[in-house]
From TrEMBL, chain A:
The keyword Nucleotidyltransferase does not apply. Residues 712-805 form the FDX-ACB domain. Binds 2 magnesium ions per tetramer. The keyword Repeat does not apply. Residues 403-478 form the B5 domain. Belongs to the phenylalanyl-tRNA synthetase beta subunit family. Type 1 subfamily. Residues 39-149 form the TRNA-binding domain. This is Phenylalanine--tRNA ligase beta subunit. It is found in: Cytoplasm. It comes from Alsobacter metallidurans. GO terms for molecular function: ATP binding; magnesium ion binding; phenylalanine-tRNA ligase activity; tRNA binding. It catalyses: tRNA(Phe) + L-phenylalanine + ATP = L-phenylalanyl-tRNA(Phe) + AMP + diphosphate + H(+).
TrEMBL record, chain B:
This is Phenylalanine--tRNA ligase alpha subunit. It is found in: Cytoplasm. One of its GO terms (biological process) is phenylalanyl-tRNA aminoacylation. Keywords: Aminoacyl-tRNA synthetase, ATP-binding, Cytoplasm, Ligase, Magnesium, Metal-binding, Nucleotide-binding, Protein biosynthesis. Binds 2 magnesium ions per tetramer. The gene is pheS.
Length: 805, 360
């Protein structure tokens, strides 16, 4: 919304500067976005008289002018404009002036040997347009010495401010003035609207053609005729204001409607009676009906929209835009003025469907003052009569003006309760009255009647806001808000929150880089990674590749790693910890931690290195997953690593991490080439995914005491075993067998070599393990050690068919 | 006794000539071994008369001691020389690079870092962290938050919707974290103090908007908290988050469906050469919206707005990250470009803390 200072002063008696007005607007909730003040920018520019213009002695194209600036002796100015001539009036700027059109500050200069003490200016130099054919040529009666901006009526500052959707009343200058007056900026000028008596009945009748439950679509429609008008250009002052706020003057009748829209937040429409056939019927549009609107476009309507029709058909889209056919032009002599009320929601929907945003729609969808429907029509009629002459009919009113009878019980203490601000009751009362609220009742507890132009005010909290925004939010004092208890802050994070943030740090500590990728991915990708359910598909995705909620973080990470590879960064280790979706219920949303390594990006080193280089393989992914589990303190004693994983992993190079078949917590492995191909990712790549919500919680313990540490006095003994087993035997099973052989003694089993090749039969492999025995009672004798070794061999044989190599 | 001094000179010469420890050992055996020259002399002491022993004993013993000393000295010298020679031979090129450490390479995304910072600050003020699902019911995202029917935000144009289910219910991707306010109020008895960080979504994609972004909001519900408290919390937060001693803030009346009274908050700043600095300058920058929770919202959550009251505020996590750390473009947050992540991301152990400071 824009207004000019002089326009505002029609409604507000104030001596406030434009700066103070702007500051106050922001303070009361009408945030100023820009102030354009030509008078300030152009202050040094005055009207001057060119006493003489002589040829410059040293330059053909220059003239030496003696200029009467109205301040003493004429000054000498060198001027290059072709139109500079003796006896003309133009605009002068003295040295030291900033020239907006050139972005420079003028100095005293010597041009080709002749001193120049100022400049005669073109419109472009003043920043007022494109015209730089010559200096501004003013009429002979322009007063010398007067500020040019003032004389040219460029001294009316324009303020552009934002109006929140709850404040339709501030979409008219009148309403803005009311706010400013309440904020002590001046006296609100609120003249009663005088009715214009009708000389004859309105010849055009209006019928509201709605079903009973549709009546809200048009509560009231008022119409009157002014006949015998002369529709020419509107007066200078009106055109200047309309132009200043960015509107194009058209003709007096149309300009009046626009003026009323911005002055009073009362959109109107004018029909040329000569083009209207029969009476007006206001009704729902018929599906497929069309109208050529004032913007020159044809709109196809539907039954959700309301139209104003006559015997010709649709003449206007109610509350949104008039029709081209019945519009007013210079030849109009009889004008029908419409002032109506529309359903805000219906106007909003219609405007959105048609893709039209007019000043009328903007106001009707926010809410115009119903009580001003008829006064607005009177005011517009008066303007038409004043500017275009003619004779007004009586008012034809269809429907009725709804009563505004909102009453709120309001204890003044509510202000302090909600804001902490203790204001004197009289001040609060004055604010409400200045804003147009009626206040009655005893001192502390009052009844407040809400003015018809404030559809947003519904309850006590709204009244509090009215009082506080006018009194000033800056008067609300910062009040310390300490913790409720405990001198030292207590921890606040839940288990999953702690695990989420620790997992991120753990993976970063493994040299991985955290990505945040979209929560939605393409349908085919979602399906490929276990998702794609219909309830997880967006009805209105922003792009086809962002259509379905992700079932896994892996597709996003894999595509990200490919994008990096495309940029030349082939060795990447990316991770993400974030939400994945298994259904559309809250409990179907899980937190996953996933990582993807590609190329030579291992935790130990990245890229080619003089010590050697190795591609990241599934064991790096497994190590990443294990690092998360270990960092989170998840006990891994019961963790099972089962060969194979979901379909998007390599069937022979992937594993499932679980605490039992029903407690699967994640997967790791090399990605399946087909899955990579579907994502358009060049492999190989390895990755893992853990579902953090599935991880077992730590055991609840009464104290923080750690379990007792018992250290053996006896040295541990290490024994190595090389077993030959079938190729299909899992090393994990061999390790388990060794552990099981003598649980009291075996403290660790490590696989230190796996070998296939010469010396080992086909289909077999050699697995070497180091078993650590930790005696606790006494030093073991050779015989005892031998007995344990035999047990281990026997157990390995029994569980895995292993033989000692 | 010139025999003795001749022998000593002879041994000393041999010691000096011994080029390594093995050669020195030969000299030692030759002098002090069982049949060594000095040992032989020592043996003669036993058959001497006491007078003779008195005279020769000290001489022979002295010789033995000096020879022993010479040998030890030479042995040390040879050992040192041998070690020096070995070390000289073991010289490597120390300018060869060692692998870059994982801790040096790894990065945490700025969004995660800022969420940790927020949690640190508000955790100290006694706020818990509440969370909720991204896929929300229309009721929780709009209706309960006092969005009127027909509000533009409820259109497909602005909000991501799912297809209606069998019951005709149409879920959506939450457009703000505010539904978690409702969830919290419905499931928890006041007093309530929570912050709610999370992912939010709107159908928007251009230079400054992405279809997915992050918000954090705060909610306080009890029987006495008012706008003065809200102001204090936000001032303390901004000072602490932006790590400046003073911030000047401006509260402007504004409008949100779910708060009344509502305000927008600007923070004073300077803009020099494209860099924004807080706590100085005379420009204002809008950073958040806030207000007292609307009585309708409190009522919709099953509480009595005449008994309970409180406030809420909300801001963009991505946005405050950009303001604090200077990333120029929001879209890059979600592009996973390792160059961007390495540059703007945080090292794994850069854990924000109140004692050590939020950022390094």
């Amino acid at each position: 919304m824009k207004l000019t200072l002089s326009w505002l002063k029609e409604h507000l008696d104030t001596g406030a500067s434009v700066e103070t007005v702007a500051e106050t607007l922001t303070k009361v909730g009408l945030e100023v976005e820009a102030v354009e003040d030509q008078a300030k920018v152009l202050a040094p520019y005055t009207i001057a008289y060119v006493v003489s213009a002589e040829q410059h002695p040293n330059a053909d194209r220059l003239r030496v002018c003696m200029v009467d600036t109205g301040a003493g002796e004429p000054v000498q100015v060198v001027c290059g404009a072709p139109n500079a001539r003796t006896g003309m009036k133009s605009v002068f700027s003295p040295p030291g002036t900033f020239i907006p059109g050139k972005g420079i500050t003028l100095g005293v200069g010597t041009i080709r040997g002749v001193e120049s003490r100022g400049m005669l200016c073109s419109a472009m130099e003043l920043g007022l347009g494109e015209d730089h054919d010559g200096i501004i040529d003013l009429p002979a009666d322009a007063p010398v010495g007067v500020a040019y901006a003032e004389w040219a009526h460029l001294d009316d500052p324009v303020i552009d401010f934002a109006v929140t959707p709850n404040r339709p009343d501030a979409l008219g200058v009148h309403g803005v003035a009311r706010d400013l007056a309440a904020a002590n900026l001046g006296r609100f000028i609120d003249k009663p609207v005088a009715a214009v008596p009708g000389a004859f009945p309105c010849p055009t009748r209006v019928r509201l053609d709605f079903a009973a439950d549709d009546a809200r679509l048009c509560p009231a429609f008022a119409l009157r005729l002014v006949r015998g008008v002369k529709n020419g250009p509107s007066p200078e002052w009106m055109q200047r204001r309309l132009k200043a706020i960015g509107l194009r003057p058209i003709n007096a009748l149309v300009d009046i409607t626009n003026y009323m829209t911005f002055d009073q937040n009362r959109p109107l429409h004018v029909f040329d009676l000569a083009k209207v056939k029969g009476d007006l019927v206001v009704r729902r549009a018929r599906d497929g009906e069309e109208v050529l609107a004032l913007d020159g476009r044809t709109y196809r309507l539907d039954a959700g929209m309301v139209v104003i029709t006559d015997d010709n058909g649709v003449e206007s889209i109610a509350g949104v835009m008039g029709g081209e056919h019945s519009g007013c032009d210079e030849n109009t002599t009889d004008v029908l003025i419409e002032s109506a009320l529309w359903d805000p929601l219906n106007i909003a929907t219609t405007g959105r469907k048609l893709g039209v945003n007019t000043d009328a729609r903007y106001r009707f969808e926010r809410g115009v003052d119903p009580a001003f429907c008829l006064p607005g029509l009177e005011m517009a009629t008066r303007m038409v009569l004043d500017l275009c002459g003619g004779e007004a009919s009586g008012i034809e009113l269809a429907g009725e003006i709804p009563a505004s009878d909102k009453l709120i019980d309001f204890p003044y203490a509510e202000v302090e309760r909600l804001t902490g601000l203790d204001l004197p009751v009289p001040e609060m009362k004055v604010i409400l009255r200045e804003l147009g609220f009626w206040v009655s009742g005893s001192d502390r507890y009052v009844k407040v009647a809400v003015p018809s132009w404030r559809p947003d005010v519904e309850g006590k909290a709204d009244i509090v806001e009215e009082i506080v925004r006018i009194a000033g939010l800056d008067r609300v004092l910062s009040t310390p808000f300490p913790r409720e208890e405990a001198i030292v802050a207590k921890p606040v994070l839940t288990l999953i929150q702690k695990r989420t943030r620790t997992a991120k740090r753990a993976l970063a500590a493994r040299g991985m880089v955290e990505a945040v990728t979209w929560s939605f991915i393409g349908k085919a990708e979602a399906e490929r990674f276990g998702g794609g359910q219909p309830e997880l598909a967006l009805a209105n995705p922003i792009a086809a590749e962002l259509s379905d909620m992700r079932p896994s973080l892996l597709p996003g990470l894999l595509k990200a790693s490919q994008r990096n590879a495309d940029r030349g960064f082939t060795d990447t280790a990316l991770f993400e910890v974030g939400q994945v979706f298994r259904g559309d219920k809250p409990e179907d949303q899980k937190i996953a931690a996933s990582g993807v390594r590609r190329g030579l990006a291992r935790a130990e080193a990245v890229g080619r290195h003089w010590t050697g280089a190795k591609a990241a393989d599934l064991f790096d992914a497994k190590a990443d997953a294990m690092a998360v589990l270990e960092t989170l303190g998840v006990p891994t004693g019961g963790l099972q690593v089962v060969a194979g994983g979901p379909a998007w992993f390599h069937p022979g190079r992937s594993g499932t991490l679980q605490f039992g078949p029903k407690m699967v917590v994640g997967w790791f492995g090399e990605l399946h080439p087909r899955a990579l191909e579907a994502l358009d990712v060049k492999g190989p790549a390895v990755g893992f995914e853990l579902i953090l919500d599935m991880l077992p919680p730590p055991k609840a313990k009464p104290t923080k005491v750690k379990p007792k540490l018992t250290l053996s006095d006896f040295q541990p003994i290490a024994r190595d075993f090389a077993f030959v087993v079938d190729r299909s035997v899992a090393a994990g099973d061999l390790v388990k067998a060794a552990q099981a052989a003598e649980r009291q003694l075996v403290s660790a089993v490590d696989v230190f070599d796996v070998y296939e090749g010469p010396g080992v039969p086909d289909g077999k492999k050699s697995v070497a393990i180091a078993v650590t025995l930790q005696p606790t009672e006494k030093t073991l004798t050779d015989v005892e050690i031998e007995a344990v070794a035999n047990k281990i061999v026997a157990e390995a044989q029994k569980k895995t068919g292993a033989t000692l190599r | 006794m010139s025999d003795l001094s001749a022998l000593e000179s002879e041994i000393a010469a041999a010691v000096a000539q011994a080029g390594d420890e093995a050669a020195l050992e030969v000299v030692r055996v030759g002098a002090l071994g069982k049949k060594g020259s000095v040992s032989d002399l020592l043996k003669t002491l036993g058959s001497m008369s006491s007078d003779e022993r008195k005279e020769k004993g000290p001489l022979i013993n002295g010789l033995r001691d000096r020879v022993t000393g010479l040998l030890a000295e030479r042995r040390t010298a040879l050992k040192d020389a041998a070690l020096d020679a070995r070390l000289a031979a073991e010289r490597v090129d120390v300018t060869l690079p060692s692998p870059e450490s994982a801790l040096g390479r790894g990065r945490v995304h700025p969004i995660s870092q800022v969420i940790d910072e927020l949690t640190t600050i508000f955790g100290d003020m006694g706020f818990a962290v509440a969370e909720g699902p991204d896929i929300e019911a229309d009721f929780l995202n709009f209706t309960a938050l006092n969005f009127p029917v027909g509000h533009p935000a409820r259109e497909m144009h602005d909000t991501f919707f799912f297809n209606p289910d069998a019951n005709g219910e149409r879920k959506l991707l939450r457009t703000h974290t505010s539904p978690v306010q409702v969830r919290t109020m419905m499931s928890q008895k006041p007093p309530i103090r929570v912050i709610i960080p999370g992912r939010t979504y709107r159908c928007d994609s251009d230079q400054t908007h992405t279809p997915m972004f992050h918000q954090v909001e705060g909610l306080v519900i009890d029987k006495g908290s008012h706008m003065g408290h809200l102001k204090w919390i936000l001032e303390e937060f901004c000072r602490s988050f932006f790590e400046v001693d003073n911030v000047k803030m401006r509260f402007r009346p504004s409008f949100f469906p779910f708060t009344e009274p509502s305000a927008e908050v600007d923070i004073q700043c300077s803009r020099k050469g494209g860099e924004i600095r807080f706590g100085e300058g005379d420009d204002w920058l809008e950073i958040l919206g806030c207000g007292m929770v609307h009585p309708n919202v409190i009522r919709n959550c099953g509480l009595d707005p005449d008994e309970y009251q409180g406030f809420a505020w909300g801001m963009g996590i991505d946005r405050i990250a950009m303001l604090k750390y200077g990333m120029p473009d929001l879209r890059a947050f979600f592009d996973a470009d390792v160059r961007w992540l390495s540059h703007y991301g945080f090292r794994p152990l850069d854990m924000p803390s109140l004692t050590a400071g939020l950022s390094v």
